[in-house]
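1st attempt posting a full record on here, be nice pls
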Amino acid sequence: MDSGQILYIICRLTLGGVAAFLAIMLWSKTRDPAWMFMVIGAIATYGEAVYSTLVFLGVIAESTIIIGSMSVASIVIPCLPILFFIAGFAVMVVRKYRGR
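the predicted structure (as tokens):
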């Protein structure tokens, strides 16, 4: 592992941790469904960063369930945050157009 990879991992985990912490702080102050999905998406993004780092370092093995040449976990985990963000945006769009 070279210094660029180490810097990438440190930045990703540090900034993701700050974002997840702030998201949790916001979560305690709001009960709006759109914001809740955004908060869950931020936390899921940090979880994906931790998971991919642990797999990269060899601490945990990837899932044994494989589709083609990729494990199911390596397909599903990166998609989860995006799905939560889509749900949050969809709630906001429905709320905006329902009011008209």
